[in-house]
Q: What sequence folds into this?
């Protein structure tokens, strides 16, 4: 039991944890084999042995779930740290002149093009 919990806690990644899970709880896992061997025990010993195996299985499953959550959190944190954006750096692909340009000047230049568009368009009744 202690060795199984140590193996769970020693898993460095999700793939290793899954291998430990299969080795302990899979179809041919250690605990599954022990549950299958209960039939060979005398009837008086079966309930106590079955209870011990089930308790061990429950504690291993809980340890596996806890370790899986921790490994997933660590993987997510590593992924987020890798893709972090420094918002204090200037933007990419923009010239310095664009960044310094005043919004008011941009509006003034845009309003003259809008006036030109209205001058060239004709309104209702053919007025221009």
A:
């Amino acid at each position: 039991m202690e060795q199984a919990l140590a193996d769970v806690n020693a898993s460095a990644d999700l793939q290793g944890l899954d291998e430990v899970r299969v080795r302990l709880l899979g179809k041919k896992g250690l605990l599954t084999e022990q549950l299958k061997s209960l039939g060979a025990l005398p009837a008086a010993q079966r309930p106590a042995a079955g209870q011990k195996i089930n308790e061990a299985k429950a504690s291993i499953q809980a340890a596996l779930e806890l370790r899986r959550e921790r490994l997933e959190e660590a993987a997510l944190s590593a992924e987020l740290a890798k893709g972090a954006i420094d918002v204090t750096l200037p933007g990419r692909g923009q010239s310095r002149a664009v960044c310094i340009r005043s919004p008011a000047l941009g509006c003034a230049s845009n309003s003259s093009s809008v006036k030109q568009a209205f001058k060239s368009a004709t309104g209702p009744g053919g007025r221009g």
